[in-house]
Amino acid sequence: MSSDHERIAQSLAEKAAFFAATKAWADMHMKLTFFLAGARSGHEEHQRSRQLDDWQGRVVAAREAGDTAAGHAVESELRELVLAELRGRDGALAQLCEAFPLLAAERQSEQKSADDEVEFYFADVFVFVSEYLSQMVRRRVNGSTATWCPRWWEHPEAGARLSALWLAWEHLRHDPALGMSTWWLHHADPHLRVLLDADLGPFAACSPKDGHTAYPFGPLPVDPYDPEGSSV
Q1: What is the pTM of this model?
Q2: By the 8 A CB rule, do 172 and 179 touch?
Q3: Kind and range of the H or E run holding 149
Q4: What is the pLDDT of residues 6-26, one digit of tens each?
Q5: I need a labelling partner for 205 at 20 to 30 A (CA). Which of 13, 65, 88, 150 fits?
């Protein structure tokens, strides 16, 4: 479990450093603040928020200065903070995976890789989308007949679907006869129909031209399940 925690903490620190200079940082900052504070107190949330603001400033400054060593050093600070929380608090791993669905997908893929000794062609879903899917799939994404969000990872459903597409591709590529046909017909086509749907898809509020919306859709409304009061 220790090595599992270390991989997750490293992956999250790398993603945070990558998005620190983008608009995606605001959402990541909020999620990291809640995770690192561990619901212990409002005072600690405030402290963690200020700590992350300072961290972001230093990691962006290192990148702009082209100081790779300094950037890695600052990145490792967040890694250690996340790792300490994972090691010291029950339920921390589940909370982190819920806040960052792509981490959960990566963790599952790493566990499967370790169990089956499978070597992935693409390192992760980000590489798969940027280097394969976005290059292979070419559509008239005008926001009316079809749409797309350049920051697809900010949509939990899209992240889960694209991670599923990546893992299915990695598995089916080993079948030289029917693998890719199966992937396109039974995986890519149905997922892309949902993802690109300009009216009902997860990117419907976004624009391929203007980018990610400032007002993304919220989760589905769900009432707490009460087995005593249920009529089912």
Answers
A1: 0.51
A2: yes
A3: none
A4: 888 888 898 888 889 888 899
A5: 13
